[in-house]
User: Fold Zinc knuckle CX2CX4HX4C domain-containing protein from Sesamum alatum.
Amino acid sequence: MADAAGGLRSYRVAVAGVTVSPPPPPISFDSSSFRPMGTLTRDQGMKTEIGLGIGTDVVIQRVVYEWLPKYCGACKHLGHAEEECYEKHKAKRAQRALDDRRRGKSVAFAEHVTCPHPGASTSGAKEDGKETCGDVLHTDTPEPVMEEVVHTP
Assistant:
């Protein structure tokens, strides 16, 4: 009844010669301890209920999330809500860059400035380092389109 590799085995296993494991407990969907874990991708969206199948039986179960990341519907990214989106709110993006500069981060911008005036030419002249389009002198555009690169020291 002793096994050199595994130590002592039970009498039942030694006599029968096969490994016997106890049957698994029955699955009860009513139990509060029944908590299946699943992974959802962003493409599937947030489910409110799912179908759980055992054999041919399918039970519709309400989904309770333990944790939800912030999700932006405007730019389809995780990590921020739609009201905090820098793609949707360009002014917030510029303000964040200004705050980063004040905190000591070096921020580089590649600005693609388009003139808001109808009929303006894209090849503006430069006067004292300031761009002009026709009759209007531009020192700052209201909402420039920026690509931001942040370098932390």
